[in-house]
Amino acid sequence: MDIGILVKEGPYNHQASDTAYKFAEAAIKKGHRIDAVFFYNDGVNNASRNMDPPQDDRDIGNRWVELCQKKKVQMMVCIAAAKRRGINDDVLIDCGEITGLGNLTDIAIRNDRLVTFGD
Amino acid sequence: MEDNEDDEVVKKIMHVMRNAPHGTIYTYEGLEMILIMAAYDQDISVAFIDDGVYALKKDQDTEGLEIKGFSKTFKALDGYDVEKLYVDQISLEERGLNEDDLLVDVEVLSSTEIGKMMAEQDVVVHH
């Protein structure tokens, strides 16, 4: 099955981005394809390269980068939501792409499922 | 899923407004998402449940919040061909509201009916 993921909450503050990541990992392991992760609302903060968590904690930013690089999952950030929250190309994680909600619409249309993680 | 004239896939996409219009940004950014998706010729509907019904309340005044009011944008949705607006009856009742308190024509449905419609969607996005 082809799956798109929508993440609507910020990293560390809310479990949504952890669960989204775990879901993606498990789905890929089962043989499904994760087409893209789209970050919206405070979820855009997942795409900040400035995250610097304590060493004994998970590195949420790097996890997304690895998912992108190793499993070819696109990482998309809504430009309108990003601009409000100070996320731009200067602070974007590797393989992150700032884009529009039109791309989310395409993700919703072309995949078998769009799975939302939020409050 | 059904085919339109151009043989393009048309998906049933439901947006669910569940939060009060102010206090968090969910409703406002949800509305922005609806407006973009409306341009893609999909079968869009919006359901208002729980505190989400307040989004459609008449006579909202956001001046004191220093936030630009956006409730009128819900009124403009039919101009974007988003005409399927569903409101959960029990959510209205629990808040002492009825259809006359809302600024736009909606279809008031039972939770069961809205649940059934959700199950028929290709995509459901909660805001």
Notes on the protein architecture:
The complex is a heterodimer of chains A (119) and B (127). Chain A has helices spanning 16-29, 60-71, 79-84, 101-110; strands at 2-7, 33-39, 74-78, 96-99, 113-117. With 119 residues, chain A is α/β, with parallel strands linked by helices. Chain A has a 5-stranded parallel beta sheet with strand order 4-3-2-1-5, with helices on both faces. In chain A, helix 2 (60-71) links the parallel strand 2 and strand 3. Chain B is globular. Chain B has helices spanning 26-37, 71-75, 89-94, 111-119; strands spanning 2-3, 9-10, 12-17, 43-48, 84-88, 107-109, 123-126. In chain B, the strands form 2 sheets. A 5-stranded parallel beta sheet of chain B has the order 6-5-4-3-7. With 127 residues, chain B is an alpha/beta fold. The mean pLDDT of chain B is 94. Chains A and B meet through helix 4 and strand 5 of A and helix 1 and strand 7 of B.
Question: Keywords for this structure?
Answer:
heterodimer; A: 119 residues; alpha/beta; Hypothetical Protein Ychn, Chain: A; 5-stranded parallel beta sheet; 4 helices; 5 strands; 35% helix; 23% strand; globular; B: 127 residues; two-stranded antiparallel sheet; 22% strand
Element layout with pairings:
The complex is a heterodimer of chains A (119) and B (127).
Chain A: E1 2-7, H1 16-29, E2 33-39, H2 60-71, E3 74-78, H3 79-84, E4 96-99, H4 101-110, E5 113-117
Parallel strand pairs in A: 1-2, 1-5, 2-3, 3-4
Chain B: E1 2-3, E2 9-10, E3 12-17, H1 26-37, E4 43-48, H2 71-75, E5 84-88, H3 89-94, E6 107-109, H4 111-119, E7 123-126
Parallel strand pairs in B: 3-4, 3-7, 4-5, 5-6
Antiparallel strand pairs in B: 1-2
Mean pLDDT of chain A: 97
Element order, helices and strands of chain B? EEEHEHEHEHE
Summed up, the domain count of chain B is: 1
The poorly predicted ranges of chain B are none
Element pattern of chain A in H and E: EHEHEHEHE
Q: In total, how many domains does the architecture of chain A comprise?
A: 1
Strand line-up across the major sheet of chain A: 4-3-2-1-5
Helix tally of chain A equals 4
Describe the main β-sheet of chain A briefly: 5 strands, parallel
Q: Please state the CA-atom Rg of chain A, rounded to the nearest Å.
A: 13 Å
Strand content of chain B: 15-25%
Q: Give me the count of strands of chain A.
A: 5
Overall mean confidence score, pLDDT of chain B: 94
Predict the CATH topology of chain B. Answer: Hypothetical Protein Ychn, Chain: A
Low-confidence stretches of chain A: none
Radius of gyration of chain B: 15 Å
CATH class of chain A: Alpha Beta
Going by CATH, the homologous superfamily of chain B would be DsrEFH-like
